[in-house]
UniProtKB/TrEMBL annotation:
<keyword id="KW-1133">Transmembrane helix</keyword>
<feature type="transmembrane region" description="Helical">
    <location>
        <begin position="207"/>
        <end position="225"/>
    </location>
</feature>
<feature type="transmembrane region" description="Helical">
    <location>
        <begin position="64"/>
        <end position="86"/>
    </location>
</feature>
<feature type="transmembrane region" description="Helical">
    <location>
        <begin position="135"/>
        <end position="155"/>
    </location>
</feature>
<feature type="transmembrane region" description="Helical">
    <location>
        <begin position="28"/>
        <end position="52"/>
    </location>
</feature>
<feature type="transmembrane region" description="Helical">
    <location>
        <begin position="176"/>
        <end position="201"/>
    </location>
</feature>
<keyword id="KW-0472">Membrane</keyword>
<protein>
    <recommendedName>
        <fullName>DUF998 domain-containing protein</fullName>
    </recommendedName>
</protein>
<feature type="transmembrane region" description="Helical">
    <location>
        <begin position="98"/>
        <end position="115"/>
    </location>
</feature>
<keyword id="KW-0812">Transmembrane</keyword>
Amino acid sequence: MRFDEFVTTPPRPAPTDLGGRKYVQSFLLIRLVIGFLGWSLPIVLVAGSFVLGEDDPWKDSISAYYHFGMGDVFVGAFCATALFLFSYMAFERNFDNVVSIVAGIAALGVAFFPTPGGPTLTPVQELLGERVAGAIHFTSAAVFVLALAAICWRFGRGEGVRPDRTPRQHARGRALHYTCAGSIVVAVAYIAVAAAVALPGLLDEKAVFFGETLAVLAFGVSWFVKGTELRLLLGPVDAGA
């Protein structure tokens, strides 16, 4: 396993290679789905809570939705993300695959070990204790978010070595993915600062929600953009391309 090896989109298939085309489409579709799950989750959770008529559809954190009407959606989204992260590069032996697997395991930790503060204790909290379950949740969340930043950064590094892109496209790709990685780091720093220093109004009250939302949106955008190459395969492919 080498750190400088990058997972890139498989070579574009020839027009007559239907099997190869379907393989690449599947690879890119996984990226699209992971990206969609990332940027849509905060929107779906807030909108769903509003539709369900909850008194406070805008919770203090994304994890807090576990304890309310959108809890199944929260758990399902993180489990689906974990499965996609596990299968995305399952047979690749490189650093990207390790980070992807770590992120997947952490996503399951976020889903199965709830954050403290619910109206009643869950079976997991009763078994382990609310404090222990919360510690596992927060550790998993931290690992998950940092792994997301690493994946986005690796996407940016990988953009610079693609032979099928122009220098301008390389620069654009690197800028986008590095911005997403940086946004995740900023989100983590913001949550840490808000925990240590009193900020005004909602910037303090909803700091965790704002930070988590920025992180998953940045992650989702990075992955979604990596998957939008799918549209190139849906159109005509020249033999010499």
